[in-house]
Every structure is written in structure tokens, then in C-alpha cells.
Specification:
By secondary structure, the chain is of the alpha/beta class. The chain is built from 12 helices and 22 strands. Strands 1-2-7-8-9-10-11 form a 7-stranded mixed beta sheet. The protein has a 5-stranded parallel beta sheet with strand order 17-16-18-21-22, sandwiched between helices. Strands 12-13-14-15 form a 4-stranded mixed beta sheet, with no helix packed on it. The chain is elongated, with a radius of gyration of 24 Å. The protein starts with a strand and ends with a helix.
């Protein structure tokens, strides 16, 4: 993609990554891809805002060369130290050693730890407002979004918020960089939610603090480090992030995430009956085979829905391991206060239910019902399973009335 002018003297010079299979070495993006959004203030003083991961350095330099000479760069503004934002930094230093790096005081410390860089580094305070010519910037410290050194950069002149990881999402850019260039934004909204839950969810309090901190700042464009630039309706992505962050402490949506695993099809047979009972009550249900679906795609459903239906056979006296792993990751991401129920098959002795109770106690999931059976479910078992699903769906709906 070519360099794109966002506003006078302000350019997007980012790159797409469609070859990395796991973001952070954990979250799959092989199909979706991701963008590393770099921005150039091309004024009397020239400044880069964020960079790219090291493997994309050459492509990034080609982008930059379309609008500026690297040797003329005066500043590199580091909003965040993670290597997908800073991986090109050492190469830039070798080509143009005289630019000054701007970042928070913690960034200054991390630059030495990560890259051994100590020269031409300037720590900036919250609210500092340097002038680059016709363009004035302001730095907004936003710690733990999602590392302690993170900040945002606000273009006061053009009312652009370079928001770093906040308000970002997975998904390589498909020819355009702005939200108004896509008639159907559902892909990017869905990938923004997955990104939020995978990367940001543990830091919902800092998200809400940052949104409150920026409440009186006039913003015409949200320019994150990953994903779309929001210029038609920047408030949309802010409101989505606010809503998702509030799920951590407030009410989730009326819906059920059904996570199951099955070794020989017995628990899966019951799953279909349970799912039918849930839908019979008019409650939306999303179904995931934990052994075949990466946790990355399950977590957004768990984050959004207040009901969790767990289908698991007993495996060596415990939950089926892929199902247990989903719940353990939900605990890491602090997905708390859900209504839950459990069903599953066992051979000669149970144990899955007892294991589940231990896993969900720290995250305050309320286990409202359970249904276990021996071997393959009978017709009577399946009938009970449908009623079991319907009862749970009714309990999920009833919970809304009490909130």
C-alpha cells in the first residue's frame, strides 16, 4: 500500500503483516493478518509515531521514502515499547543516529533494557506539548494500556488521537486505511473485540480511566497502532471499547457460550440436545469445540455472554483437558461473575464436575445446574438434556431482571 495523507503534513506509512501466524506468539492471525500503523508528522520538524516489528523494517523504510528522507527525521515518538511497535528501532539508529527518541520516563528505562539505547532519549511528561511547526502535539500518559510505559500522542492541530494499542484490532488492511472506505465494518469490529479480549481485557480499568481522561479532548480521528483509522465515526470504536471494558464489572449480554469436548461422541450427542433447549428459550448460543477451536476465538464469546454452558466428559477424574484450558485462560483474562452449568458423560466414576467447581471458584462463576450420565445418552437422557438447556437459558434471562 502507498503512503496515505491523513491530514496536511500527517501521513500513514504503515505496513500489513499477512505472514505471521501467531501474534505475541499466542493468538492466531494467520487468516486475518494485522497492520502495524506508523505515522509521520512531516512538518518543519519531522517525527515518526510508533514503528513496526523488525521483520517488516524494509517494507516500512520503502513506505517512509515515499514522503520523507529517513536521515531528516528529528524525532521518533515511542508510544509503547512492545517489539511490534519498536522492532525497527535499532536499524533506524544505524541509518540515522541523530534523531531523538521521545517517550515516558519508563520508556527511557526500557529502551536500555530492550535495545541498549541510552543516547538521544528524552523523557516526556503527561501534557507536554511540543511544536513541530504548524503541527502541535500533546502527550497523554495511559499506563497499563497495556504496559506501564504506554502513552498516546494527540495532534492538537488536526485533532487526531494516535491511540497506540487502545482502540485497535486484528485484521490486515484491505486496500484502505479509513473506516469510511469499508461498507461492511463487521469484520473489523469482530477482530477489534477479539483483539480487546486477547490483549487488553486484563486492563479494563486503565481503559475506562483513559476514556474518562480524554472525555473533553476534541477528537476527529482515532489512529491506533493496529487496524482501521476511524475518521467517519471515531466515537464508534471508543464506545465499543467502553462497552467491552464495562463487561468486566457490569452486566454482560443475554447469551450463552457453549464450550464442549467429546472423546467418542457421547458428550457431543448431549450437547446437541442441550443447545436445542437453550435456543428453544430464545437465548442466543455460540458453540465451540474446545479441542478444535483456538482459545483466542472462544474468549470474546465468554467476555460478552453472561451464560456459560460447559460440556465435558470425565477424563482421568478431571475435566476434559481442552475444556479445562479454556476455563483456565478465562481466569487469566479475568472473565468473572458468569452463570454456568455443566453436562457430560463418564465411564465408571465422575470427577469432571468436582474439578470444574475448583476452577470456577476463584472467578466467581455461579454453577446453577449440572447433568452427568454414564456412557452414551439414552433417549430419556437427551430429553432431560433439552430441558436442562432450557432451564439454564431461563436462568440467564432471569438474571437480567435482577440487575
Amino acid at each position: 500500500m502507498p503512503a496515505i495523507e491523513i491530514k496536511p503534513n500527517v501521513y500513514w506509512i504503515g505496513v500489513n503483516d499477512r505472514t505471521t501466524d501467531l501474534f505475541e506468539g499466542l493468538w492466531p492471525i494467520e487468516q486475518e493478518g494485522i497492520s502495524y500503523n506508523v505515522y509521520l508528522i512531516n512538518d518543519e520538524k519531522k517525527a515518526l509515531i510508533d514503528l513496526v516489528r523488525g521483520m517488516k523494517t524494509d517494507e516500512f523504510l520503502d513506505q517512509l521514502a515515499q514522503v520523507a528522507d529517513l536521515t531528516e527525521i528529528d524525532y521518533v515518538i515511542i508510544n509503547h515499547m512492545e517489539p511490534d511497535h519498536t522492532g525497527a528501532l535499532c536499524t533506524l539508529r544505524k541509518i540515522a543516529p541523530n534523531f531523538t527518541i521521545l517517550g515516558t520516563p519508563k520508556t527511557k528505562d526500557m529502551l536500555q533494557s530492550f535495545y541498549g539505547i541510552t543516547e538521544n532519549v528524552q523523557a516526556v511528561n503527561n501534557g507536554d506539548s511540543p511544536c513541530f511547526g504548524a503541527t502541535s502535539l500533546q502527550f497523554v500518559h495511559t499506563p497499563f494500556l497495556h504496559w506501564p510505559e504506554t502513552m498516546m500522542t494527540y495532534d492538537v492541530t488536526h485533532r487526531i488521537l494516535f491511540s497506540c494499542d487502545a482502540f485497535g484490532g486484528y485484521g490486515a488492511l484491505r486496500g484502505g486505511v479509513f473506516d469510511d472506505e469499508y461498507p461492511d465494518l463487521e469484520f473489523y469490529k469482530r477482530e477489534a473485540l477479539r483483539y480487546f479480549v486477547n490483549i487488553i481485557a486484563k486492563f479494563t480499568s486503565p481503559v475506562l480511566k483513559a476514556i474518562k481522561k480524554l472525555a473533553d479532548v476534541p477528537v476527529d480521528i482515532i489512529a491506533p497502532s493496529h487496524g482501521l483509522i476511524w475518521r467517519k465515526n471515531p466515537g464508534e470504536i471508543i464506545n465499543l471499547y467502553r462497552k467491552w471494558a464495562e463487561y468486566a464489572t457490569g452486566s454482560a449480554e443475554v447469551g450463552v457460550t457453549l464450550i464442549y469436548g467429546s472423546m467418542y461422541g457421547n458428550t457431543e450427542a448431549m450437547m446437541n440436545a442441550v443447545a436445542h433447549g437453550i435456543t428453544r428459550e430464545g437465548v442466543p448460543v455460540e458453540i465451540f469445540d474446545a479441542a478444535r477451536t483456538h482459545i483466542s476465538y472462544i474468549l470474546p464469546s465468554l467476555w460478552v455472554n453472561r451464560g456459560v454452558m460447559i460440556g465435558s466428559p470425565t477424563y482421568e477424574g478431571l475435566l476434559f483437558p481442552p475444556v479445562a484450558q479454556v476455563i483456565e485462560m478465562a481466569a487469566i483474562k479475568r472473565i468473572q461473575r458468569r452463570k454456568a452449568a455443566m453436562f457430560g458423560s463418564y465411564g465408571w466414576s465422575g470427577g469432571a464436575l468436582r474439578h470444574l467447581k475448583k476452577l470456577i471458584e476463584p472467578i466467581k462463576w455461579e454453577l446453577v445446574d449440572s447433568l452427568e450420565f454414564i456412557g452414551h445418552p439414552s433417549e430419556e437422557d437427551l430429553r432431560k438434556g433439552e430441558e436442562f438447556g432450557a432451564r439454564f437459558a431461563a436462568a440467564v434471562k432471569e438474571a437480567e431482571k435482577g440487575e
